[in-house]
Amino acid sequence: MRVRLGDDISVRGLAYGERLRIGDVVVSLHPAGHVLGSAQVRVEHRGEVWVVSGDYFVSGAGDHNPTCTPFEPVRCDTFITECTFGLPIYRWASQAALMAQIRSWWAECASEGRHALLLGYSLGKAQHLLAGLAGDDAPGPVLVHGSVAKLNEAYRAGGVVLPAVGTVDASTDFRRLRGALVIAPPAVHGSAWARKLGPHRDAFASGWMRLRGARRRQGVDRGFVLSDHADWPGLLQAIAASGAARIIVTHGDEDALIRLLREQHGLQAESLATEFDDRDADPPGPSA
What we know:
Layout: H1 2-5, E1 19-22, E2 25-31, E3 39-45, E4 48-52, E5 78-83, H2 95-111, E6 115-119, H3 125-133, E7 142-144, H4 146-157, E8 166-167, E9 181-184, H5 192-195, E10 200-205, H6 212-218, E11 222-224, H7 232-242, E12 246-252, H8 254-263, E13 268-271
Parallel strand pairs: 4-5, 5-12, 6-9, 6-10, 7-8, 7-9, 10-11, 12-13
Antiparallel strand pairs: 1-2, 2-3, 3-4
């Protein structure tokens, strides 16, 4: 948080499962599997338990994001769940399959004498990509944008093992490199910074790449469907595991999920509008 917001902010950390009493309420944080430190918030008051999910990712067996603690189901009476990808079309392939696809594209770029510019959010997505792609058998060297490098150090300080990679700076000579993979935030797309790579192809890693229109609007050569949010089956799995009779859905395509929960599961389901609701906006690829 200090890397993103500055050293002058006040931060109090809680270990997962640690209980904090605030008046008559007991609060605890539980793994969300989204990014390093991401947490669901469990709130208990006089025997009634609510859980606010925040952003979360539910993985299959052995398929979790290696850069953060996997999602932990928390039993509750009311579950407030995100719904970023709340439509049945959103179903993620395995992490291993996605990384293999990206590595194959990177190798193709290298064989053409081009670098590969891979766009992904600096916090979470970039570290996920780095952990899955860098290695001794990689098609070429790996470098990262400066904003990614700062967060890599924060991850390492938090105990996450990440491969050692170079950082792009003024001294980087891409003419001397062959087939480099450069991981950078989406904001660099089409910028002077990106043009310094010389001959290259670009790709965007996001759950929004499931939509053909979103891929076209991003204007990149390739789109890889990789997200750190729950897909449709993941949302249903998390809701069922909570055991909650009341489900409050927010931030996404809520209607389809609410209808399913009411009609097929017999649950009390409703939406919660917030100032961060972006249902009417274009898919915000960089954050997903």
